[in-house]
Amino acid sequence: MDYSGTRALANVKGKDSQGFLQGLLSIDVDALHHAPGYALLLTPQGKFLHGFFIFHGDNGFVIDADTRFAPALWRLLSMYRLRAEVEITPLEDMRVIRTDDATGKLAFHDPRHDALGLRCYEQKGALLPASIAEDAWQRRRLELAIPEAYDDMMQDKALPMEFRMDRLHAIDFRKGCYVGQEVTARSKHRATLHKQIYAVTLEAAVPNGTEIHKDGKLIGTMFSNDGAHGIAMLRTEHATTGNRLECGETVVTVSPQPGWMTE
Fold first, then answer.
1. In terms of C-beta density within 10 A (0-12 exposed, 13-18 middle, 19 or more buried), how is residue 35 classed?
2. In the chain, how many H helices and how many E strands?
3. Which residues contact 189 (CB under 8 A, 6 or more apart)?
4. Neighbours of 131 (CB within 10 A)
5. Cβ-proximal residues to 117 (8 Å cutoff; 6+ apart), any chain
6. Please, which residues have CB within 8 angstroms of residue 182's CB and are 6 or more apart in sequence?
7. What tens digit of pLDDT does each residue of 142-168 get?
């Protein structure tokens, strides 16, 4: 399946749509204007539920979500709608690709990091620019250690700050209240976080979810990896650059961290 087939799009419109989304999502919807955003929808306890792209369309907002979880997302948004004048309509005639060149198209840089390329939106059947090959795009993501919703962040378990979502522009601490805001704000100070994601290198690929040990002690979990680069959740006291850790039958080494994590 090409990338377009892994994404589902929906239009959120109606006179209450902006306020409705502002009260739910982790980013400042009022500040989106015509720039894209990467937003989280959390549980009241501040745990990750959904992550998706959102931008202003010609008629309200467009949400770009993972096909596997989009139906559940549409249902949840509809549940939160209550009596607000908001309509959520799947956009079956649009598609999206990842590309490095989308001149003249409806396209935006991935709001998490420019190195992830452009997201280009077009009607089905329209000519699209060349897409970034899946393995090449994943290599970029892993070298930067950028976590992906659902693949690295488990629903109803992951805490956004442990996955550094604030540094990927997915959390706005200046906006007003939203679902899960209180817990997220409390965990803003790094001193309260005992574990976070880190960039690592590997000697061989391991399954997502493989435990990481140091001297026989469980100290983390490996997430996405390609056998060379990966994303690991580690207890902070074991995340020193160069530290060698055991992960299944292979060795994991903590890398110098990419700039977006430390800037």
1. exposed
2. 5, 14
3. none
4. 18
5. 98, 99, 100, 109, 110, 132, 137, 140
6. 46
7. 999 999 999 999 999 999 999 999 999
